[in-house]
């Protein structure tokens, strides 16, 4: 029966035994698995994934400017009006973005008055909201719209009875004259951009030193997968990005950016106004309202670069050293589990020693008996 010490203290110890087996099949198996490990590290991690290089994603700055001259055609009268940058870019200067109106409506000479609201149809006063002092809950039955205090359009008789819709391009047909921008190949955008790789010693790249900086609007639409007709109808929001892809970057690297255009939204609406006062009564304020569907282009600059790194190379060497024991483990498993002579392999690989703890106990017992006989002999003498 096992004693208490046998349960507390382990009575066995396992250690590895190095056995050299002279078997051609085992040798080929081990070499094949080792070659697969080398092929994975070198082919996949080093060559395919470029594990020998360090990479960095950099975000830069960019600016955009519209250039060129084209014209618009009125949808009702067919009138042709030349358009340049000063007449097209009227919504203010933006940083890293530009808005190009493709289809626009202009409402001239508006002033604040009480007039009908096309966005609020009604049949009687109960259909109109009562929110003083702007809305008094009155319905203009002959027009079928609610009356409120707002910016009103001048009528043919000089009265201000008609209001302006919030978006004349939504839903049905536009009731006022629409100017549609034509021949987009005449317009170009100039993009100046740069990126800086801080992890690689502050290497800076720019397209101002001989790289391409100008593209036509037609080329931008083509890269976004849009036609000019689609842009003229609804406009769009476009992400216009200059992308640098620079392998093995250095201070003397000549890296050319690529223009990538992505359509973020298939429509874009904007409106703005010019305010002024006119004679004879300069106390009255007027405005000209511009409403347009167009292209909003958001310009950005990004870059990716790589450099050969000694640290990454050492990491791949450590990966090889860590994976090589797998070859021995798989060879041992296949040898002891799958081969026809697996029983002989197990006998060579695993060996059980005699119980040295029993031998030690017998030696101690013999030493005690010898000491006891010597003591008796001395006492007898």
Quick take:
The chain is an alpha+beta fold and 381 residues long.
Q: Topology, please?
A:
Layout: H1 4-8, H2 24-48, E1 53-59, E2 61-68, E3 70-74, E4 80-83, H3 85-88, E5 97-121, E6 130-131, E7 135-140, E8 145-153, E9 162-163, E10 179-182, E11 187-197, E12 203-206, E13 214-216, H4 217-224, H5 228-234, E14 236-246, E15 258-265, E16 269-277, E17 285-308, H6 310-337, H7 342-349, H8 356-380
Parallel strand pairs: 14-17
Antiparallel strand pairs: 1-17, 2-11, 3-4, 3-10, 5-8, 5-10, 5-17, 6-7, 7-8, 8-9, 11-12, 11-13, 14-15, 16-17
pLDDT averaged residue by residue:
82
Q: What is the number of independent domains?
A: 2
CATH architecture of the largest domain: Sandwich
Give the CATH level 1 class of the largest domain.
Answer: Mainly Beta
Termini distance? Answer: 43 Å
Q: How is the CATH topology of the largest domain named?
A: atp-gated p2x4 ion channel fold
Q: Give the topology string: H per helix, E per strand.
A: HHEEEEHEEEEEEEEEHHEEEEHHH
Helix content: 25-40%
| Contiguous uncertain segments of 5+ residues | none
Count of alpha/pi helices: 8
Radius of gyration: 43 Å
For the sheet with most strands, the description reads: 13 strands, mixed
Bin the strand percentage.
35-45%
**Record field, number of beta strands:** 17
Task: Tell me the overall shape.
Answer: elongated
Question: What structural class is derived from the secondary structure elements?
Answer: alpha+beta
- CATH homologous superfamily of the largest domain, by name? atp-gated p2x4 ion channel domain
Family: Belongs to the P2X receptor family.
InterPro entries: P2X_extracellular_dom_sf, P2X_receptor
Transmembrane segments: 27-48, 310-331
Subcellular location: Endomembrane system
